[in-house]
Every structure is written in structure tokens, then in C-alpha cells.
Request: fold
Amino acid sequence: MVDADQQRRSTVATVLARALPGTAADVPLAMAREILDVLPDLRLLDDARAAQTTMEQTIERVRAELDRSPWTVELPPPGTDLGEALRGEARLLRRNTATRTGPYAVGFAAGSAAFLRSLEARAATVPRRSRPDPAGDSPVPSVPDDRPNSVRLAVESRVAVLPADPAARQHDRRILVGNELVRYGLDTGVNSTELASTVADLVLAALPEIDTLPEALDALRAREDEVLSLWQRLAGEQANHGLTEPEIRWRNALAGELRQQADAVTPNAGLTDSFTIGFSLASQALAGKLRARADEIIVLPVPIDPWALPKGHDESVS
Reply:
């Protein structure tokens, strides 16, 4: 996938090649790089767009967490260690796994038994880690650090010094681009400020997005407010339902153990006999149940850095 900067280099090089015929083939692209380097608004625009995308993904992730209400999940009582919790999950799976009939039945039973033995073996070796007692934890909710968004600050600083008059902004950019064109004059024949200004206007006309930085700043501010509001709302909900930091760490450790056991199952390719097919089907079915259970248990922690993209359910938790 071509990124925005590469696309701009190609666009500017094409404009230069057409405006300055007879120039050696490699010169327009080299000039394009230099010209873009003296137009910082474009780099800031890319940074703003990337930051906005991250914020929008964060908003979606936090909203999903609020909608699924993870505090309603049934869990073993406080004081239960991880090993005991894993054994409890194994008991639930054993109780809720239906017996199969037909040619795959023997393999399915063997696969189910093997999967449950593996889960119970992990329960015997997992480090002790007791579920905390909410009565002994501080009810004060976690809140995101109030550190500012660095991209928004950078864009804000740049917008603050831009001339308010569009003609003045165009004039300043024309000078910057024209200087680069004159610098390459021996290679291109640009030997006057008039010609440099004419070509500079062609280059800037091919980069219309350069004047959208104020709009990008407005969008960033709006997303920033929404991100902080959602994190604060989530922190309040977690505190109201007893999800203190130790409780969240324990739940996420349990979810991580369940997902690790599920991820150890890999589909067998080229299956032929009914026993092996049944064995594989049982393992995959139980792995799916563990993943679903892990997704119920896992909790999205309120981060120190509110601008970082939260980890998904398939990433490491602790």
C-alpha cells in the first residue's frame, strides 16, 4: 500500500516533469523530496490523521466494553486462586459437553478428555494468584493520566502561527517551494524568481490538502474530548461494580490462561479416519468455548496513557 508521503512525492514529481521538460528523469523525484521537506503542514496532517484513526479505534473499543458490561459475569468467589479457577472451568466444560454418537463418537470423547486433561494439568502448575477481596481494595477508580495529546499540541502550535489570510499562506509556501526550485536551477533551467513562482504554484495546486490542517485540528479536539469522556465513564462503571485494579489483573490473568489453552489447539489438515476427525472436532469445539469464556471474563483496563490504542482480546493481558 502506497502511503500518503509516497503518493505526494509521485504527484509532485509528475508536476515538475511536465512543467520542466528536458530535465533528467531522476531530478523531479529528488526535487519532490526536498520540496515536501520544507512543507511541514503535510507531515503534521499525516500525524493528525493517524492520531484521529487511533482515537476512533479507541472510542469503538471502549464503547464495546461499556456495552458488553463485563461486571455481570459469574466468577468464583474472592480468595479463589487461578489453579482452582481453571479446574472450575474444566468442570463446567465437562458438564456441558454433549456426548456424540455415530462414527466420530469415540474420537470425540477421546479429544474432549485430552483437552480437559491439558487444562487440568495447567491448573496444577499455574502460579498461585488469589482473586482479591473487593472489601480490601480501594474503591477509587482508575483514571487516565491527564497528559496532553502530543500530536494535537503539535498541530495546534502550527495552526496558531499560520497566517489567517489564505493568500498570505500561499505566498509563504510559494517562497519555500520556489527556493528549492532555484536551488536545482542548474539541473532544471529555473533561473528566475518568476519562473520559480509559476512552477511553485503548479506544485501547490497539486497539494490542495495542505490547507486543511485547521480542520484536522478541530477533528482531533473533538475525538480527544470523546476519548477522555469515555475512559472516565468506563473508570466510573468499573469502580461502581468493584472492578479495582487487582481484580482486573486477576480476571485478565484468568482470561489469558483460558485463551492460551484454546490457542494451543490447531486444526488437523488432511483428516481421513473418523477417530481423528472426531478427536479434532472435540478439541476445536472446547477451544472455542474457552475463547468465548475468556472474552466474557477479560476486562479492559483504564490506561495510564489515554491516547494509546487498547489491546484487543487476542493480545496479551496480565
Q: What stands out?
A: The chain is about 65% helix and 0% strand. The chain has a mean pLDDT of 90.
